[in-house]
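Example (one chain per record):
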Amino acid sequence: MSNDGSDTGGKLCSVDFEIFGHVQGVCFRMYAEDEGHRLGLCGWVKNTSRGTVVGQVQGPPEKVKEMRVWLSKKGSPGSRITRAVFSNERDIPKLEISGFRTRR
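Predicted structure:
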């Protein structure tokens, strides 16, 4: 429990994402997985046949928000993100995914 009011009170949320731009062949998935682990989030990430990267992130709302910023603005060093679409954002009673990994 923190003293600065940032405690989530056990709240969790989930959000799906799709990232557009030059995001394949630039280790985007590996860096996303690392960032998810760093933030203590659960989720997954994978390439699509459309040249985008999709996935889902679950965890405390403030950490999910940090991941959304990373996905939409930073990405991997070689990536060029042109657009990030977030959908199906919802509160969840408990994590539905364990760990953070790349899917094939």
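Caption: Confidence is low (pLDDT under 50) at residues 1-8.
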